[in-house]
Amino acid sequence: MLLERAETGKGRRLTLPGATTRLLALKVVETGMSNSSASVALRVSPLPVAWGTMVLGVTLVGLVVFAFGVQKAENELSCYGWLTGHWSNVSNYSHGPLIPLIASFLLYWNISHRAPAETNWKPYWNAVTAGGVTLGIWFVAGMLNKDWEAAGYRLAMNLLPLPVAWQVWTLREYLRGTTRPATTAGLLVFLGATALYYVGIKAVQPRLVVIAGVFMLYGIALSLRGWDVFRLVFFPISFLFLMVPLNFLDNVIGFPLRLFVANAATLVLNLIGIEAIQRGSGIISAVFRFDVADPCSGIRSLMALTTVTAAYAYVTQTAQWKRWFLFLCAIPLAVLGNLARVISIAVVAQVYGQELATKVYHDWSGFILFPVALVAMVIVGFLLNLDFRRWIQHLMQPPAKPRTHE
C-alpha cells in the first residue's frame, strides 16, 4: 500500500489513504539522529468492504435461491425443478440447459471488449469447462441406459447452477462500474418482481414465477451496481427469458405451421413431378402416405433456432435494427428448413419406399437440415455486415489501364 509522508513542524506524519480514518500516535526514534525523535501520526483506513452493499447482496441472492430452489411452485416441485422437468419432457425445449450457459458467455463477451488486453481469462474458461462437464454427465447417461438417463439428467441439472454461478463470479472484478449503485430503483424493481412472484405462486403459474426471477436479477444488478454495469448485464439477463417453456404456442402456432408446411410441400412436390394431394396435415401420393406431425411443423426448430439466432445476432451485429432483423429471420429459416425436410422425406419415399423414408431417413434428416438453417443464418448475418455501397462502387469502377513500358 502506498504511504504518504507529510512534513510537520518537528517531525513527519505518515498517512494511509482513506476517507474515514483514525489517528494512532507513535513514537519512532530515527536511526542516526542524536537527542531527537520524530512523532509519527498513522492514519489507518478501514477495510475496503462496503458492508451495507454486501449484506444487501447476500440477502437478495438468498431470497432468490429460496424462491426458486426451495419454495414449491407446482406438484411439490420447486420452480427450478419444474423448469428442468419441462426441459426434459417437452422436446421443443430440450435445449433449455444451454441457455444459462450462453447467457454467461454473452456476459463475458460484453466484458471482454472493455477489459485490458492482458486480462487473464483462465478462471472463466475453467468455469466454462465445469459447465461442459456438467452437461457431459447428462449426455453420457443418455448413451448408457434408460434407467441411468433420468438419474444422470437430474444430477446434471442439480449441478448446473454451480458452474453458471462460478462463471459469473470469475467476472466480478469487471462488474464494479464507475457510478453509484441505483439502490432505490433496484429495490423497487425487486419488490415489483416479488409481487409478480407471489401472484405466480398463489395462482400456480410457474411461468410467471420464472419471469419474475429474471426481473429479480434486474433488481439485484441495479441494487448492487450502477447504471453502467446494468447496461452491461441487461442483455445477458434478458436472454434468460428464452428458457421459459411456452407450451401453449404448440396449439397457437404449431397446428397452423403443420397446415402451411403440408400445403407448401404438396405444391413443391407437384411442381417437381411427384403427384400428391393434401388432406389436412397429411400428404398422400400413389406411393407414400404420411402426416406432418408437430415436430415436423417447425415449432421445435423454431425454439432452438431462435435461441441460437438471438445470441449470434447480438455477437455479430452492432446496429440494433440488424440484430432484430436477424433475430426475426429465425422464423422463416426454421419453417424453410422443415419444409425442405418434409419434401426430402417425400422424395426418398417416392424413390426408395415409405418404410425407409419414414423410419431411417426421417430420424436422421433433422441432423442434416438443421445445420442448413444455421448456415443460412450465418449467410444472412454476413450480408447484413457487407458494405454494399463500397462493393457496388468497386464493381462500377472502370478497369485500370495497363501500364505501358516506354
Q: Please, could you describe this protein's structure?
A:
This protein is of the alpha+beta class and 406 residues long. The chain folds into 3 domains: 4-44, no CATH class; 52-243, no CATH class; 249-392, no CATH class. 64% of the residues lie in helices and 9% in strands. It contains 16 helices and 9 strands. It has helices at 51-69, 79-89, 98-112, 122-144, 146-159, 161-170, 183-202, 206-224, 227-238, 249-271, 294-297, 299-316, 320-328, 330-352, 354-385, 388-396, and strands at 4-7, 12-15, 22-28, 38-44, 72-74, 77-78, 277-279, 282-284, 289-291. The strands form 3 sheets. Strands 1-2-4-3 form a 4-stranded mixed sheet, with no helix packed on it. β7 and β8 form a beta hairpin. α12 packs across α14 and α14 (330-352) packs antiparallel against α15 (354-385). The longest helix has 32 residues, at 354-385. The radius of gyration is 30 Å and the shape is globular. The relative contact order is 0.07. Mean pLDDT is 79; it is low at 1-48.
